[in-house]
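Hi R.,

Quick one: here's the Formate dehydrogenase (Quinone-dependent) catalytic subunit sequence you asked about.
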Amino acid sequence: MTNPWTDIRATDLVIIMGGNAAEAHPCGFKWVTYAKEHRGAKLIVVDPRFTRSASVADFYAPIRQGTDIAFLSGVINYCITHDKVQYEYVKHFTNAGLIVNEGFGYKDGLFTGYDEAKRDYDRSTWSYEMDENGYAKNDETLTHPRSVWQLLKKHVSVYTPEMVERICGTPKDKFLKICEMIAECSSPTKAMTSMYALGWTQHSKGAQNIRTMCMLQLILGDIGVRGGGVNALRGHSNIQGLTDVGLMSNLIPGYMNIPMENETDLKTYLGKRKFTPTRPNQVSYWQNYDKFFISFMKAMWGKAATKENDFAYDYLPKLDIANYDILKAVDLMDHNQMNGYFCQGFNPVLAFPNRKKVERGLSKLKFLVVMDPLETETARFWENHGDFNDVNTSEIKTEVFQLPTSCFAEDEGAVVNSGRWLQWHWAGQNPPGEAKHDTWIMAQLWLRLKKLYEKEGGVFPDPIVNLHWPYEDESEPQPAELAKEMNGYAVEDLYDPKDPTKKILEKGKQVPGFASLKADGSTASGCWIYSGSFTEDGNMMARRDNTDYDGAGLYPKWTFAWPANRRILYNRASADFDGKAWDPERKVIEWNGEKWTGFDVPDIPPASDPHAVGPFIMNAEGTARLFTLAGLRDGPFPVHYEPFESPVVNPIAPNIRGNPAARIFDEDLAQLGTSDEFPYAATSYRLTEHFHYWTKNNRINAALQPQFFVEISEELAAEKGVVKGDWVRVWNKRGQVFAKALVTKRIRPIICDGKPVHVIGIPLHWGFIGEAKKGFGPNSLTPFVGDANSQTPEFKAFLVNMEKSKAPVDENGKAEQ
Ligand SMILES: Nc1nc2c(c(=O)[nH]1)N[C@H]1C(S)=C(S)[C@@H](COP(=O)(O)OP(=O)(O)OC[C@H]3O[C@@H](n4cnc5c(=O)[nH]c(N)nc54)[C@H](O)[C@@H]3O)O[C@H]1N2
Ligand SMILES: Nc1nc2c(c(=O)[nH]1)N[C@H]1C(S)=C(S)[C@@H](COP(=O)(O)OP(=O)(O)OC[C@H]3O[C@@H](n4cnc5c(=O)[nH]c(N)nc54)[C@H](O)[C@@H]3O)O[C@H]1N2
Ligand SMILES: [Mo]
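And here's the predicted structure, written out as tokens:
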């Protein structure tokens, strides 16, 4: 989230699109209710289903899943053609005036540089025209035909209200009503907030869905302001923390990347990441990449990371392909290219797409380790449960190890919420029986591996045996020790760069923030963005002071927010070009003639002249990008592509299937279906009463939502001769599920291009373990393809067929009731 949860209360308009916050984030949703009650804020919900969020909305409109880019590009087009743009913001704070390279072009759904065989682009023309000083050329009038603004205007012009209705199935009058409501927020004293989650991410163009909203928020001038922003509502309680500390196959902590194998030395690696400014005077904060990276290497390998050995650069694994995401990992298993798999707090049999392929992959492993406090379908994937898990146990040779862990309520540590607040919590109980903390198990693994390497040697034992392990009890690092290491500390005495005789931090002391980190090996920090969270003043994450200046809802003394305890990202943009708040009622920070001051930590060096330094300090040009250059793999502007399995033809690009830059393996391509065979557009979602696949172990949750169902419209039910409570079979080329039919007015056929599209809603909470009735989830049916940038699977839009059926049977041949 750019803004904290508590800031939603300061908004004028909430748009929930690509999520269902009332259901999946019911606690945070209270700030929406608060804004409605106290400010008269309005709520818009755009969803294929009439959801629990929709039931309390001021305005609801249906949309066919997988078409949000067309919808939002239509809103942008409306704002531009109706002069509902905050031009002062656009001119000074975005790249609207920068001139794009002459070789850049777009035609029939593709940008310049496309290579069909590689399903990828040569992105070299997606760049600015530079002047003789190496700066991007700028046209402040925004009229140059190759300025970003003119290219954008042209790019979105095809998304007229008629085209939006044709693609999205949103009736034109409803679409225009939403445009009017949103356009009002182009006023400097009105703000809209966007709340989204998986309805946008789980598509083959998920990153571009989000980008389109970013672009809209920029032209409304709603980024950096109170009550504004683009707010990703995160999932698992600590999934924000997971991404922050780099638990992705291509990341290391703090959103730095694992090197590629052709980056054979530190200089080459850093050279590509220390971006120098592309406009005069800009901060371009990634210029400090080396400080964060080398401090990370010191945290990892301590004394073994020296200037002479490039700070142990060779110890880091290198990638031969862009990433090893879950789809790639399962594909490797399925091709006998992976021997073992560690599954820690994860239930892939139910969570990953194409369950048949996942179970086939697991069956080919030599060993599978499951670290979990509960029994999971993954740990028991080899067990036959009749229709519910139709496997031949005698053919599966995978050895499964179950290591019982504690669960989150038995752990101490920080949980990072969607608003980037690191909130410390304490264990409520000790783990029962044989269960151990995850940290203990991982420490034991390392200690044993180290011993083996020390005894037996190996090709390259150095990264394992030299790991820096400074914990008091080496067999179980404590959460506070790990947190202090992430914050960072001085490896040597640190001196003031302006006065080298002045010592500013003694060796071994905690650094106060990432500005203290150095590229010479004199500091260590496990995760630079967390620097400031555990300083010499103590554990900032454990703070519980709810002081709130100006009623701004920023609570600067409550826990710690990364980066640097900043609550609203890009907050310099809350003030106009001269540094005065756009809305005096909603001031964040202002320029007082000498420095930036106010209610939040300025997101700009405090003495930056407002006319010289742009607010988007992480970008080399200092402005936000309406045109992303080569930042995303699938285009500098978003384009509407249909899902890989779509019920209709795309009028924008009729010959392109799915996102043309998304990776798909050949065998999975062959398993895609078409609308002739599989006419219904399915989507998957969650319910308040369950949390994924583990609350079905709890009797109360199991009683609240006991049984798997699918939601269908009255129209489809009538066509199929199905009544509420009947068993239906839903299937496609990848598998089948049996479910109780829930016939409801909440789902209506969506009319696209004059033809009805029937939507089938599939909740995801059931399996063959636990207290609830045995059932299925959507992933026996979902396609094995992901987003071109993040590889998040296309869980939200796929095709199925459906018929009335008999009940499924269990392993004893007993029919389910
Ligand atoms: N009670 C409960 N809360 C949870 C969870 C849980 O399991 N139970 N899980 C947590 C996790 S890990 C996550 S990631 C979050 C997820 O939070 P959400 O994303 O809010 O949850 P979902 O129900 O998966 O999907 C939200 C909505 O997206 C809609 N949708 C699908 N496709 C599209 C589309 O193309 N466009 C638009 N506009 N809408 C679409 C669906 O109809 C659905 O209503 O929830 C978290 N909160
Ligand atoms: N079709 C479809 N598929 C989806 C989605 C969808 O919307 N549609 N959503 C996707 C999303 S966003 C998510 S997040 C995934 C969720 O998929 P999973 O993460 O696999 O789902 P959970 O059931 O939450 O699994 C978490 C496991 O962690 C265990 N656990 C709890 N505490 C601890 C602990 O301290 N240590 C350890 N080691 N284990 C612990 C729990 O017992 C549980 O078994 O599903 C994904 N799959
Ligand atoms: Mo999630």
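The mean pLDDT is 97.

Cheers,
M.
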